[in-house]
UniProtKB/TrEMBL annotation, chain A:
Heterotetramer of 2 NUBP1 and 2 NUBP2 chains. Interacts with KIFC1. Interacts with NUBP1. InterPro entries: Mrp-like_CS (IPR000808), Mrp/NBP35_ATP-bd (IPR019591), NUBP2/Cfd1_eukaryotes (IPR028600), P-loop_NTPase (IPR027417), YlxH/NBP35 (IPR033756). It is found in: Cytoplasm, Cytoskeleton, Cilium axoneme; Cytoplasm, Cytoskeleton, Microtubule organizing center, Centrosome, Centriole. This is Cytosolic Fe-S cluster assembly factor NUBP2. The keyword Transcription regulation does not apply. The keyword DNA-binding does not apply. The gene is NUBP2. Its cofactor is [4Fe-4S] cluster. Keywords: 4Fe-4S, ATP-binding, Cytoplasm, Iron, Iron-sulfur, Metal-binding, Nucleotide-binding. ATP binds at residues 23-30.
From TrEMBL, chain B:
The keyword Protein biosynthesis does not apply. This is Cytosolic Fe-S cluster assembly factor NUBP1. One of its GO terms (molecular function) is 4 iron, 4 sulfur cluster binding. The gene is NUBP1. It comes from Alligator mississippiensis. Residues 5-161 form the AAA+ ATPase domain. Component of the cytosolic iron-sulfur (Fe/S) protein assembly (CIA) machinery. Required for maturation of extramitochondrial Fe-S proteins. The NUBP1-NUBP2 heterotetramer forms a Fe-S scaffold complex, mediating the de novo assembly of an Fe-S cluster and its transfer to target apoproteins. Implicated in the regulation of centrosome duplication. Negatively regulates cilium formation and structure.
Length: 272, 266
C-alpha cells in the first residue's frame, strides 16, 4: 500500500469516500448511490461513483450512460462523465463489456484483481465525494474494496436495508463486517418504507415498517431516514432521469434530500 | 445425491427479487403432498434468509453417523443453511470464494438428505463462486433445471439476462422465469399501481425475446413479507390471496416440467 507514497495516487484528490453497503440484495444500494450523487451534485459538489458490483452493474443505466465507453489516459482509465459540467463521473464494469447481456462469470480472485484496478487506476481528478456502490454480501468484493481503500481517509459506510426482518437480519451481519474491518458506519437508511397509493393516498407498508430504525437503535449507529416506495423514483431510474431535479414534489424527495444534507453536515470541515 | 430424483435451482442475477421467498413457497407447495419428500438447500452463504422464512431461526444442525442431518420443518420437508451453523444472528460470514466453495461441497456431500423427490437449491444473487461451484458439484448428476426470478423493471431484467446467459454457458436448462412484485393492489381502494414498472415489457417480453418459458407473475402482497418474517407458509396462511393462486399455478408448471422430463428420460 505504501508504493503510492512517491507518485501521486489517483485518489489523492478525493476528499471523502462513502461506501454504500447492504448484506441484502435489491434493497436499493444502487438507487441510494445514484440519488445521493445527484443530490450532492445539486449542492454544488463534484461526485464520482465507483460501481464494484461486477456481476450486476446497475448504475450505468440509472444514469443513462449505459452506451458510453471508458478511455485510457496517462494516469489510467478516464471515468465516464454523466453531464457536460463533468460534475458526476462514473466507473463500472458495465463499460467494459462487449455486449450488455454478457455474464461476468468470475470467481473471487478475478473480481478482486479488477476491483484493485478500479481503485488504483481510475483518473478521478478532484472530487468532493467518491461513492462506492457494492454488491450484496460480505465476501470477496467487500473485503477487497475495504482493504484497498483503507489507506485513504476519511472513509465511511452507509448501510441500506428494507424494513422487513428478513432483510434487517442480513444488514445486522453487514454491521458486524464493518466492526470487524474497522469501517466507520455513517448511518442506516430504511428504503422501500411504505407505499402511498396514488389513487386514495392510503399508506401500505408492503415490506413492513421500522426495521431499519430499530436496527440503528439496537446497534447504536445513526439512523439517516426512511425512503418510501415511490413509482416516480423507480421510473426515473429506469429511464436514467435526474429524479432530484425533476420530482421535488414526490414522496421520496424530502427523504433523499434530508439524507444528503446529513452527509454534507457530517463531512463539513468543522465536524471532520 | 444419488437418492435425489429432481433438482431445481432458484436463480436470479439480481438481489432482493424474491429468490428465497419463492424457494420457501415452492418447498411448502411441493411438500403439501405428503407422499413427496422435499429438501431445501440454501447456498446463500453471506445472506442466508431461509432459516427465518421457514421458522427455523436459532436451530442447529445435528451430526449423525451418516453426516449432518437437515433441520426438518415437517416430516417431509428438510432444510439446510449456513444459518444453522452460526451462533448468533449478528455473526457475519466474511469469507472469500474458496471457503464458500468448500462449505457448498460439504452441504452436498456430507448432509444426510435420505431419499428425496425434490431438492430445491436457493442461491445468492450473481454469477460467481457459489453458482459455479453448485454447477460443478451437481454437474455430474442430473439437474432438472433452473427457475429464474425477476422483478418487472429493466434495472432487474438487465441482470437477469446475464443469468440466463450464464445458464446457457454452463448448459443448465431453464425451466422458466417468474416475475415477482408484479403490480400492487391497494387494500383500501383496490386500484392497481405499478411500483416497479415494466418499462421494457417486463419478464414476459424478455422471455419472448430470449425464447425461454414464462412461468407467471406474482403480485406484491404485504402478507407475503409478513409470512416470511414470521416463518410461516404464505400459501396456507393466506389461501385466498391472488398471489397464492399464482404461486400454485407456477408450482404446478414446475412439477409438470419435472414429470415430463422424467418420463422422457425413461
Amino acid at each position: 500500500m505504501e508504493e503510492t507514497a512517491g507518485e501521486k495516487s489517483n485518489l489523492a484528490g478525493v476528499r471523502h469516500i462513502l461506501l454504500v453497503l447492504s448484506g441484502k440484495g435489491g434493497v436499493g444500494k444502487s438507487t441510494i448511490s445514484t440519488e445521493l450523487a445527484l443530490a450532492l451534485r445539486h449542492a454544488g459538489k463534484k461526485v464520482g461513483i465507483l460501481d464494484v458490483d461486477l456481476c450486476g452493474p446497475s448504475i450505468p443505466r440509472m444514469l443513462k450512460v449505459q452506451d458510453k465507453d471508458v478511455h485510457q489516459c496517462d494516469s489510467g482509465w478516464v471515468p465516464v462523465f454523466v453531464d457536460q459540467d463533468k460534475s458526476i463521473s462514473l466507473m463500472s464494469i458495465g463499460f467494459l463489456l462487449e455486449k450488455p447481456d454478457d455474464a461476468v462469470v468470475w470467481r473471487g480472485p478475478k473480481k478482486n484483481a479488477l476491483i484493485k484496478q478500479f481503485i488504483s487506476d481510475v483518473a478521478w481528478g478532484g472530487l468532493d465525494f467518491l461513492i462506492v456502490d457494492t454488491p450484496p454480501g460480505t465476501s470477496d468484493e467487500h473485503i477487497s474494496t475495504v482493504e484497498s481503500l483503507r489507506p485513504y481517509q476519511p472513509l465511511g459506510a452507509v448501510l441500506v436495508t428494507t424494513p422487513q426482518a428478513v432483510s434487517v437480519g442480513d444488514v445486522r451481519r453487514e454491521l458486524t463486517f464493518c466492526k470487524k474491518t474497522g469501517l466507520r458506519v455513517i448511518g442506516i437508511i430504511e428504503n422501500m418504507s411504505g407505499f402511498v397509493c396514488p389513487h386514495c393516498s392510503e399508506c401500505t407498508n408492503i415490506f413492513s415498517k421500522g426495521g431499519g430504525e430499530e436496527l440503528a437503535k439496537h446497534a447504536g449507529v445513526p439512523f439517516l431516514g426512511c425512503v418510501p416506495l415511490d413509482p416516480q423514483l423507480t421510473q426515473s431510474l429506469e429511464e436514467g432521469r435526474d429524479f432530484i431535479q425533476e420530482f421535488p414534489k414526490s414522496s421520496a424527495f424530502p427523504a433523499l434530500a434530508n439524507i444528503a444534507q446529513q452527509i454534507l453536515d457530517g463531512t463539513s470541515p468543522q465536524s471532520s | 445425491m444419488k437418492g435425489v430424483k429432481h433438482k431445481i435451482l432458484v436463480l436470479s442475477g439480481k438481489g432482493g427479487v424474491g429468490k428465497s421467498t419463492f424457494s420457501a413457497q415452492l418447498a411448502h407447495g411441493l411438500a403439501a403432498d405428503d407422499t413427496k419428500q422435499v429438501a431445501l438447500l440454501d447456498i446463500d452463504i453471506c445472506g442466508p434468509s431461509i432459516p427465518k422464512m421457514m421458522g427455523l431461526e436459532g436451530e442447529q444442525v445435528h451430526q449423525s453417523g451418516s453426516g449432518w442431518s437437515p433441520v426438518y420443518v415437517e416430516e417431509n420437508l428438510g432444510v439446510m443453511s449456513v444459518g444453522f451453523l452460526l451462533s448468533s444472528p449478528d455473526d457475519a460470514v466474511i469469507w472469500r470464494g474458496p471457503k464458500k466453495n468448500g462449505l457448498i461441497k460439504q452441504f452436498l456431500r456430507d448432509v444426510d438428505w435420505g431419499e428425496v423427490d425434490y431438492l430445491i437449491v436457493d442461491t445468492p444473487p450473481g454469477t460467481s463462486d457459489e453458482h459455479l461451484s453448485i454447477m460443478q458439484y451437481l454437474g455430474a448428476t442430473h439437474i432438472d433445471g433452473a427457475v429464474i426470478i425477476t422483478t418487472p423493471q429493466e434495472v432487474a431484467l438487465q441482470d437477469v439476462r446475464k443469468e440466463i446467459n450464464f445458464c446457457h454457458k454452463v448448459k443448465l436448462p431453464v425451466i422458466g422465469v417468474v416475475e415477482n412484485m408484479s403490480g400492487f393492489i391497494c387494500p383500501k381502494c383496490k386500484n392497481e399501481s405499478e411500483i416497479f414498472p415494466p418499462t421494457t415489457g417486463g419478464a414476459e417480453m424478455m422471455c419472448k425475446n430470449l425464447n425461454v418459458s414464462f412461468l407467471g407473475k406474482v403480485p406484491l402482497d404485504p402478507q407475503i413479507g409478513k409470512s416470511c418474517d414470521n416463518g410461516q407458509s404464505f400459501l396456507s396462511e393466506v389461501p385466498e390471496s391472488p398471489a397464492t393462486s399464482s404461486y400454485k399455478n407456477i408450482i404446478q408448471r414446475i412439477q409438470d416440467y419435472c414429470g415430463l422430463h422424467q418420463s422422457q428420460e425413461k
